[in-house]
Amino acid sequence: MSFEEKLRERARAATGDESIVDVAEMHPRGFAAAAGAGAGAGSVAGDSLTDSSVGSALGGMGGAAAGMAASAAARGLPLRVCVAVSDQSIYLLEIGDKVGYDDLSLFATIDRSEADVQVHGRVFNRTVTLSDPASDDTYELEAPRMGPFKSKDLIELLES
Predict the structure, then answer these.
(1) Alpha helices (H) along the chain
(2) What is the pLDDT at residue 97?
(3) Can you tell me the distance from the alpha carbon of 55 to that of 59, in angstroms, rounded to the nearest whole number?
(4) Which residues pair with 28 in a beta bridge?
């Protein structure tokens, strides 16, 4: 079973909606840039504290994790978001820390016919802004261009 099939199955179970047709894992907007900036800063700090490549590497990893967490917190979103689309709804689910997508928690449902979807292409990812007029909530996400999910297919589905 592929990552996508497993996530679709888990999303259907978490939402109770068997009509979900596509899913993708996304991150809060700015996630990749924050990871890069954090990694750079952490690498420099680790190198200056230990004067070794090991310190630099460990500092880089810690800095990347801190940058990603700060980006998610600034947007009020979890680090990993499952976007699931059915004919009627767009579901946003938090992907927990467990491996295998066993820990999904629904945090938003948007009526697909009412949703405002904005997509912008970037070099390494696409940004997706989902606005829910019923609640006035806006969710800014980014989808990597490469990875186990075909986010391009899901984004095209959202735009249709």
Answers:
(1) 3-15, 31-50, 53-75, 151-159
(2) 74
(3) 6
(4) 141
Evaluated on CA atoms 22, 108, 14, 143, the torsion sign reads positive
* Per-residue pLDDT at 48: 56
Q: How far is CA 12 from the centre of its chain?
A: 18
What architecture is domain 3-29+77-159?
Roll (2.30)
Name the phi and psi angles at 128, rounded to 5.
-125, 125
Is residue 38 pLDDT above 50, yes or no? Answer: no
Terminus-to-terminus CA distance in the chain, angstroms? 28
The sheet with strand 81-85 has its strands ordered as 104-111, 89-95, 81-85, 22-28, 137-144, 125-132, 116-121
Per-residue pLDDT reduced to its tens digit, 11-32: 999 999 999 999 998 888 765 5
Phi, psi angle pair for 72, to nearest 5°: -65, -45
> Are 127 and 142 contacting, i.e. CB atoms less than 8 angstroms apart?
yes
The confidence band for 63, taking pLDDT boundaries of 50, 70 and 90, is: very low
Annotated domain spans of the chain:
3-29+77-159, 32-75
Residue 35 — very low, low, confident or very high, per pLDDT cuts 50/70/90? very low
